[in-house]
Amino acid sequence: MNTPPSAERVWDPFVRVFHWSLVSTVVLNQWVLEEGEGPHRWLGYAAAVLVLLRVVWGFIGPRYARFSDFWPTPTRLRHHLRAWFRGDEMHVPGHNPLGALMMLALMLLVLLLALTGWLQGTDRFWGNEALRDAHESLADGLIGLAGLHAAAALVMGRLERTRLIKAMVTGVKERY
């Protein structure tokens, strides 16, 4: 097996700006802005636009941004989990299959939050408690998965001996 390079340019500027912009919109909407108010709603719509742009980028962006590079197929997941349980080296230049699953789940939650938030402002669903509860549950789920995502980035960085957090700032995935 070839030894991977000690540093490799992986995430392009669009992916990094998308990531940290989405983090900012989620943090602001969850802990800073008043729920249901104009800034909260518009930031939610902005988050949805970010996700939709990332979906487009997943088809037209550079190699490591493309879904085809990291789509979590059953085969990719199985190989990754086997390697993990055997203690084999698991170096993946871009997203590993579990990270890809997490990314897709987080993006889906953001889109569902935008949809349920928007629906609450329509005449048909104005004041609908079930929709409000669904929106709040989705928000709680997003925060929980985002926390798991951050923890997994730290753990996987140690296991893979890479600087994952730094890579999402610089675009370069370094091995140590």
From TrEMBL:
Keywords: Cell membrane, Membrane, Transmembrane, Transmembrane helix. The chain crosses the membrane at residues 42-60, 100-121, 141-159. GO terms for cellular component: plasma membrane. It holds the Pfam family Ni_hydr_CYTB. It is a multi-pass membrane protein. GO terms for molecular function: electron transfer activity; heme binding. The keyword Membrane applies. It is found in: Cell membrane. GO terms for biological process: respiratory electron transport chain. It comes from the Bacteria. The keyword Lipid biosynthesis does not apply. Residues 10-171 form the Cytochrome b561 bacterial/Ni-hydrogenase domain. This is Cytochrome B. It comes from Hydrogenophaga borbori.
